[in-house]
Amino acid sequence: IALCHLFFNVFGILLWYPVPFMRLPIRMANVLGERTAKYRWFAVLYLLLCFLLLPSLVLGLSLAGWRVMAGVGGPFLGVTIFIAAVNMMQAHSPRYLPTKLQTWDFLPKWMHSLKPLDRLITKATVCCSFSCEAGQNEEQGDEEPISPHTVSVRMQDEFASSQRKEQLTHSNPVLDCLEEIRPGVAVFKLKGLERCNSTPL
Q: Which of 39, 54, 91, 144 has the highest CB neighbour count under 10 A?
């Protein structure tokens, strides 16, 4: 087993590292680091998707037979190659693309940005923390009586603070990724941030 791990790593280095153009894992790690720095839940989603859901899907398709696997995997592979090619051309030579394909803005927001999903997850976690704090306040209510006016003021303060936190989550220009904004929009990035992609801000 140790030799298997050793040869797996050696062949991986020989396959990807010698030619600079082939160093895709490093670029992919940079992109994943930027996404995780911007969206803290992305690492959990990535682990669940790549190590649980996708392998389970491939296993199920392989058990269903090669026809089913080819019928589902063929179109999926074609769409993936098309998206990768368009992304590469958008980054390097967008003038060769049709006007509509020069950006993904014609698609719904949730298909080319993680911000709608981030808003949903942020609201869900804020609501969960809000309900947990309310439950703790109810448990402490037996010890000291609290007037309804105090409860309403406290709930308003907590709601305002949660709204401020949610607003700060989306209004940090430092964390905007280049591929999620329109061309020509100024992007502020911290100098040296590309070397520490997983630094939480």
A: 39
CB of 201 closer than 8 Å to CB of 174: yes
Say what the pTM is.
0.55
- What is 19-81 written as a DSSP string? SGGG-HHHHHHHHHHHHHHH-TTHHHHHHHIIIIIHHHHHHHHHHH-HHHHHHHHHHHHHHHH
**Radius of gyration, alpha carbons of the chain:** 23
Query: Cα dist. 48→21, 73, 200 in Å?
Result: 29, 20, 21
In this structure, which amino acid lies at residue 12? Answer: G
Q: Which tens digit of pLDDT belongs to each residue from 75-131?
A: 999 999 999 899 889 888 888 888 888 888 888 888 888 889 898 888 888 776 666
Judge contact between 162 and 126, C-beta under 8 A. yes
